[in-house]
Amino acid sequence: MKRDKSSPWEFLWYALYAFAGLGLELVLMGGVEPALFGGTPPSRYTAAHTLLHWGMTMACWGLTAALLVRQAEKKLGFSLLEARPVPRKGARLAIGLAALCILLNALDWGTLKVIGEFQKKGPLLFAGQYLYYAFEVVLVLLIAAFGQRFWEALRKGRSQFPFGGVVLCCTWGAIHMLSRGSLSTGLGVMAFGLMYGAIYVLLGRDARTSYLTMLAAFVI
To answer: Model pTM?
Structure first.
């Protein structure tokens, strides 16, 4: 990994940029889609509307993630995609946390989330929804990674405290209270954010392994 070239606070800004990238979906829904869909509200979107919405959102999220990863390496000296060793004990604990997330989702859905989503949406919308989730988790990972790097740069050393999860909890988690209009949903996602941050640390900050583990915890 290259040596950091900027102050620790730059990493926190990058975490917030990733969170702002998630917010581009609201920009699409509030500014672009009313004109594109003839004023149709989201509650009345057809399958075609929904798939187009997901497609545009994924394009925004993918571009945001690519820019942040590239700029972080270029300007901050932080190579997020650099392979890092995954501790065996940490991997076992991370799998346990992922299993806990899956269990909590199952209790909420009354079945495995992946089964409930398929039964609710059918093959086409299910495929679109899960591709959308895959892009969302990319930015979730970036928030956790940049948040963790901020904390460690501030402390001038590695830390097992999952501060990236705290940043996730206070951004991606907390905003679900407003976007879903539900305190319980928001608190649940905040708890997931804390666990995802812990997963990232437990897996030795390896982005690829962390992404796959977070994605499994999120979608199964």
So the answer is: 0.94
